[in-house]
Amino acid sequence: MTTTPVNTMNLDALIAELVGLEIITDPTQVAKLSQDYYNFSPVLQPQLAGKKGDLVVRAAGEAEVLRVAAACVKFRVPLTVRGAGTGNYGQCVPLNGGVILDLSSMQAIRWVKPGLACVEPGVKLANLDKKTREIGWEIRMAPSTYRTATIGGFIAGGSGGIGSITYGQLRDRGNLLAVRVVTMEDEPRVIELRGDEVQKVNHAYGVNGIITELEIPLGPAYPWAEWVVSFPDFMTAARFGQTLADSDGIIKKLISIHAWPVPTYFAALRSCIPEGSHCALLMVAESCLESLADLVKEYGGTVCQQKTAQEASHGMPLGEFSWNHTTLHARSVDPSLTYLQTLFPDDKNLKLVEHIYHHFADELMMHLEFFRVGGVARPAALQLVRYTTEARLNEIIAYHEAQGAFIFNPHTYILEDGGMKTINVEQLKFKEMVDPYGLLNPGKMRAWLER
């Protein structure tokens, strides 16, 4: 069955059903809570402009989530889950109106023990880190929106980030241990998924279950020093990044490489990076700095800013210039810019990186993030694109793919089209079981639309 248009009668009945819960109907607030950062994409802007829910329910706990789910099923009203709304692909933008279920108030940290934490989905990553560091542990990876993003939103809409150079991606076995999920059946229930079963809802945009609790692994908390290193040549910077990524004895959290003129968009770093230089933004354990200094020297780099972990704990963290925040900083200066997300082949010589860098010249500004894929350190690029037309953007994507690069397309809100480009049968089967009326974030899952 498909969703029916949301009518006033259904909404009034639904609101009456949810008396006692925090319900937001103010049009300005509802519109605000229906958005994310899809405006990074000039392709998504016209497709998602004006899309918004009819009302927002801010749940305070799992019992309230169950009430909302039951009411939406009863009146066949679509439901879209959101956390902090820091995604970039319209993951939490409702295509069919209905209820926006805001889980940002569910901030309980159930327990923390060595290597493990159990939390509600609205817990902010930075707050969780602060708590786990009290016993010497930290979250394994985080997006560049670390200070505002929620753990539920990161699991449902993210894929990796700062820390992925050590721990890989969220989809890798062991990076999510268990979840509790509320269903959208005639009588909603809570299902616990553990081990490999978590992949049924991991990075699924909330299309097949409402996550109400998560059990996640932690990593040892190191004092992370922050260095900015400049290089006169981009490929030297890139190869330095690859060598550092492959240096297993150096404990690191971030290797972010930026071709000139990308550093010009970093207002807080502009004074320390020499004109025309390419740079590496690094987070490395303080115990490894002597080895890092030797590697920088080997590649002819210049350390132009360095902070101890204590110094780095004040002000804007270096990670906020990396991953998708690089695009955010650039667009704050030039809103016409957009970006791509590219995985390059496993090649220590970075031949395709070099080819793409020279082939597109000023049209693409190279930005690399090193992370682990299948146990191997590889570069992903979040290139800044001087956007002209959608047709030209598609030509650029096609050229990358023809050369052997894999594009994670940030210009689509369809789950499968943006990521692995394949139908996830397990996620589809789970949706068919727990959301038989297709009410959860409708329109985002190709497998459901084409089944």
UniProtKB/TrEMBL annotation:
| FAD-binding PCMH-type domain: residues covered | 48-221
Tell me which PROSITE patterns the record gives. FAD_PCMH
User: May I ask which residue range the UniProt record assigns to the signal sequence?
Assistant: none
The record, for Gene3D superfamilies, names: 3.30.465.10
InterPro entries, alphabetized: FAD-bd_PCMH (IPR016166), FAD-bd_PCMH-like_sf (IPR036318), FAD-bd_PCMH_sub2 (IPR016169), Oxid_FAD_bind_N (IPR006094)
Name this protein carries in UniProt: FAD-binding oxidoreductase
Per the UniProt record, the source organism is Trichocoleus desertorum GB2-A4
Q: Which domain of life is it from?
A: Bacteria
